[in-house]
Design a protein that fits this description.
This is Rrf2 family transcriptional regulator. With 134 residues, this protein is mainly alpha-helical. It is built from 6 helices and 2 strands. The protein has one domain: Orthogonal Bundle (Arc Repressor Mutant, subunit A). It is elongated.
Length: 134
């Protein structure tokens, strides 16, 4: 499982936002060397997901809805990649080719364990902790 590029961009955008001062898309894009179109697309997804809010007007921009200490990699991952799993069979609506129709295959439980461990690891530290550790 790999994070997609959009998730990487989202993390880079978030680290440049504040809870009290709106930041323009052009500033976010310039600060992270990404196009304004990509920064806007990412900011809109984060806005829909509730991690950021947009402020209109000449002094508008995007702001965090909560401090970086309260945001984890898991929060961003869930917004940017809501249907991403370590294996298709974990989606719930996917048909496993090995499934006999009665129960999942013997590897399914292991995929569940791996997915749970990944989710727990992504929840473990806040973005503030991660940024401070660099």
């Amino acid at each position: 499982m790999l994070f997609n590029r959009e998730t990487d961009y989202a993390l880079r955008v978030i680290k440049n936002l504040h809870t009290d001062i709106p930041t323009s898309i052009s500033s976010l894009a310039e600060g992270e060397f990404i196009s304004e179109a990509i920064a806007y697309k990412v900011a809109r997804k984060l806005d829909k997901g509730g991690l950021v809010k947009s402020m209109r007007g000449s002094n508008g921009g995007y702001m965090l809805t909560r401090p970086l200490t309260d945001i984890t990699l898991f929060d961003v991952y869930q917004i940017m990649e809501p249907n991403s799993f370590v294996n298709e069979c974990l989606r719930g609506n996917s048909n496993c080719p090995v499934n006999t129709g009665h129960s999942p295959c013997m590897i399914h439980a292991e995929f569940c364990r791996v997915q749970n461990n990944l989710n727990n690891d992504l929840k473990r530290r806040s973005l503030a902790d991660i940024i401070a550790a660099k």
